[in-house]
Amino acid sequence: MAVEIPILHDQLTEALNRCRLEEIMDKEVARAARHETSLCVALLDIDNFKKLNDSMGHNAGDQALVHLAAACRETLRPQDTVARYGGEEFTPLLPETELEEAATAITQLQRKLTKKFFLHDNDNVLITFSAGVTQMRPDDSQASIIDRADHAMHHAKQTGKNRVIKAPV
Predict the structure, then answer these.
(1) 161: which DSSP letter?
(2) How far is the C-alpha of 11 from the C-alpha of 16, rounded, in Å?
């Protein structure tokens, strides 16, 4: 009988997949609680992704996702985890990081992305994202942390896009 090996990465972007994110998040939440350190979670959503797909095609959309995942790997620290949460959303986990530091790290990622266009059919394409960032509370579950980051990310979208909003701790 063959042993089935679980898929841990998103095949397109090579970021971790959502299932693996949940496993790592369980460990990071437990580690932060055990060592009394902070853990921040961000939710990034590519701005105007549907428009990009509709105007340039799904291949361009796919390349935008790959581009963002690569920028995350190049910009964030080795101890940070990045997963494709779904669609055009990514979730970085930033262990041992306070909220202000996490917001700064995600803002630096935005800046890196705006300086690094990707080429599609000989056109330079600028990719931006809106992000919500939050810090774990003692009573948080995975769902509550993600929900808080999601609300902050939607606030970023509603207030002009291409920005990072900190959720209240």
Answers:
(1) S
(2) 9
Choosing from 14, 22, 23, 88, which is the catalytic residue?
88
* Phi/psi of residue 145, nearest 5 degrees: -65, -50
Q: Catalytic site residue 22?
A: no
Which residue in 11, 10, 42, 13 sits closest to 25, CA to CA? 42
State whether residue 63 is helix, strand or coil: helix
How far is 130 from 135, CA to CA, in rounded Å?
A: 17
CATH dotted code for 18-166: 3.30.70.270
Angle in degrees, 0-180, between the axes of helices 49-56 and 58-75, rounded to the nearest 10: 130
List the chain pLDDT tens, one digit each, 169 residues: 666 666 789 999 999 999 999 999 999 999 999 999 999 999 999 999 999 989 988 988 999 999 999 999 999 999 999 999 999 999 999 999 999 999 999 999 999 998 887 777 777 888 999 999 999 999 999 999 999 999 999 999 999 999 999 998 7
- Candidates 134, 103, 118; CA nearest to 70 is 118
Q: How far apart are CA 129 and CA 79, in angstroms?
A: 22
